[in-house]
Write a structure and sequence with these properties.
mainly alpha; 80% helix
Length: 346
């Protein structure tokens, strides 16, 4: 219970660190261009919000235009499937299909009360999600604006161990930045390729599906199975099983190229986990925090994995500087010691 309650704070803070790693290069560039920290931070936040808002507006308009056509295509595909069940090798009767539909309807009606409770719970979750988004934006803003000052204040609590903690924190931040920027690049390539394939097949809602694949790429292994499955169902419902098989083939090939070319080349050594470790980390993150927990589970584990060796490692001992020899004394000038003594005074 305590872990579930704390997740409403820890998850937004963890996601804020991911967003900070993604947006900090923009803020840093603006600061080098002469912007004050407050202005650079506000500009970065407004640009990010404008990009997300514009993308959501375009996708929403496109989905609103294409959704009726998708429904009509799915209805036609359902009629084709029904005809195949009647005339195909299964030779089902219409009464059997009607019984199946009636049973499915009955199961839905029996679960109506549970669905209603879920809707009420979903309203509560919506309020909690809005509060978490506000916390996320506040944390991201102050990390972008005062991240170095916050880190310096944090280090003062460790006294003599501050140097060791500082090295661990900087190693963790480099890992997080590398992971986030590399994952965003890989996800963008993945979404672009799949979006082009879906658009070439004239699949409705290809743009929202490409965005879904982009965000699902942040959940290793599991995310692409979910997003790819949804896209395959849409392709099957709108274009038939032939196009669906072709899309699955393209998805498998593209996924192999991502795993063996893009991930090692772009993300590099920021994440060196065995697939079994990734599955376990995703399972723990999903149980503790749902989808958001699965998103942050892998980068958080990678950060801890890179920071622990720096905490254990002692500061390297600098070799002693070589002792410089004293400069040689100047030699006496020739004939200075042979001068004749002065004679007696007269």
């Amino acid at each position: 219970m305590i872990v579930a309650r704390l997740s409403f704070v820890t998850l937004p803070v963890a996601i804020a660190f991911l967003l900070t790693a993604l947006l900090y290069p923009i803020t840093s560039r603006l600061r080098r261009a002469g912007f004050r920290p407050i202005y650079a931070t506000w500009t970065t936040m407004l640009v990010a919000l404008a990009f997300i808002g514009g993308l959501g507006f375009l996708i929403g308009n496109r989905a609103n235009d294409e959704f009726p056509g998708l429904v009509a295509q799915i209805q036609q595909t359902a009629r084709d499937v029904q005809a195949w069940l009647l005339t195909g090798p299964l030779h089902l009767r219409e009464a059997q299909i009607a019984d199946f539909v009636e049973e499915l309807t009955r199961q839905i009606n029996e679960q109506r009360s549970q669905i209603t409770d879920t809707v009420l719970t979903g309203a509560t979750a919506l309020v909690e999600a809005l509060a978490a988004i506000v916390l996320l934006l506040f944390v991201t803003f102050f990390l972008l604006k005062d991240g170095d000052r916050i880190w310096g204040w944090f280090l003062r609590a460790f006294g003599g161990a501050a140097d060791r903690v500082d090295r661990a924190g900087r190693a963790a931040w480099r890992t997080l930045s590398h992971y986030v920027l590399g994952t965003v690049a890989v996800a963008a390539v993945h979404a672009l390729v799949i979006g082009i394939v879906l658009a070439g097949m004239r699949v409705p809602l290809w743009a929202p599906l490409a965005v879904l694949i982009f965000f699902a790429s942040f959940i290793p292994i599991v995310g692409i199975f979910f997003a790819g499955g949804v896209a395959t169902l849409v392709v099957f419902g709108s274009q038939g099983w032939v196009y669906a098989l072709i899309f699955v083939g393209v998805l498998v090939v593209e996924q192999q190229l991502e795993n063996h070319v893009l991930q090692p080349l772009i993300v590099g050594r920021a994440l060196e986990f065995h697939p079994l470790a990734i599955i376990i980390v995703l399972a723990v993150g999903g149980i503790l925090g749902g989808i958001a927990g699965a998103v942050v589970a892998v980068p958080v584990t990678a950060v801890i994995y890179r920071a622990l060796p720096e905490l254990r490692r002692d500061r390297p001992v600098e070799p002693p500087r070589p002792v410089e020899p004293d400069p040689p004394e100047p030699e006496p000038s020739p004939g200075a010691g042979d001068a004749a003594p002065a004679g007696p005074n007269r």
